[in-house]
Amino acid sequence: MNVRDNSASASSVYFKLFKMKVPVFSTTVLRYSLNPQSELGRRVHVDLLFVDGSRLSEFQPLANDGASLQSPRGSMQAWSSVVCSVGIYAAGKAIQEILVGYDNAGDIGNVTAYLDSIEIVIAGDVPPPWSKTDVGAAEPAGNAAIEDGLWYVLGGGTGLQYTGDKFHFLSRPFTGNVCITAQLEGLEQVTGPSFAGVMIRESLLPNSRSIMVGVYPQYGLQTSFRVTPTGPVTTITHDAGSKSAPRWLRAVRTGNVFSTFTSVDGEAWLDTLHTVTLAMDSTQSVGLAASSGSGSETIDTRFTSVSVTVTPATSVSEPVHQLPADFQLYQNYPNPFNPMTTLRYALPRTSSVDIEIYNTMGQRVAVLVRAEQTAGEYRVQWNGINGSGTQAASGVYMCRMRIHSALNGRSELRVLGKKLLLLR
Predict the structure, then answer these.
(1) Which string of DSSP letters, residue by residue, matches 276-287?
(2) 213 in a domain, yes or no?
(3) Are 349 and 407 in contact (CB under 8 A)?
(4) In a domain, 323, yes or no
(5) 292 and 193, same structural domain?
(6) What is the β-pairing status of strands 274-277 and 178-187?
(7) pTM (two decimals)
């Protein structure tokens, strides 16, 4: 950065470095190196613009030296490392652009500094038995994280190919009959033949037997499978129009029979998309797969409502019911909506539940649930009517779910939220 500050009053300058769409987790970190070439260059810093229009600097974040990110730092013509724990200030947001900025109260002079090694470290947890790996040493390297019901998979690699698969896989081991279900909530549009889906895979080797049902932005909804380790990947297109999210996906194993399914709401599952027999070992890896279809970029994909269950021998489409593992508030469907939308939520134990709708001014619009409920999965509908009995206006609303429960004799409060878009 090399500019001239001629203003004796407060001044700010910001430049866009590049765009990216990355969710912020509680453990997300911003790192970069700064080499000031002038005294005012010590005030140069990296900032983040979020999808909602806010900026990291608005939260007065602190860097690893204890000073605010915008404060002067470093020695002249020497490199120093700057680290900021973004997740402390902006967890739940999504980064839209990386900026380079300069803020000054009133000094005049040249603003010159070098920046290098700018990176956003996701650093989200993947709790056991889940793990993340780049199958086939996919490049660029991918990543994955699980937090507050969001399963984030960043995938690189050229995808599923005869010569060997290259993609990012967030998976867990499972033995025997299995059913994996997930809602693909969003996937980035990139230039390559990218995909995101649910997969059952014999191993993490590039030529493993596998089956996947996923969304390909270029081709639509497809099932892909490899029958033998030395064989090709067979791909079947089911719906060329289904090129975007959201979309519910399911892959099921019963013995050596594997089937794929899809749904628009996670409740009504359409007829079997495809069934194939694979001589797969009883111990397999089950999870979420994503690839950019390119060796030069990654794709940002997001899943919710992920479940891995045992498949009953009598049915390949209805997994055994299990109590939820954690509190969940799922994204409403449809969204946008008019006039009615459905919200699903899950309770792992008996809890006091309040679900309310708020407008962007923070005013409560409607109360949907206020009750003591036992463990299980529930659904509630909002018809777009406010507390006065009249139609709410078009716009963005927030559904807030407050949960009071007791665990090991201690009271616990959880607050979850989802954005809703009402279009009249």
Answers:
(1) EE----SEEEEE
(2) yes
(3) yes
(4) no
(5) yes
(6) unpaired
(7) 0.64
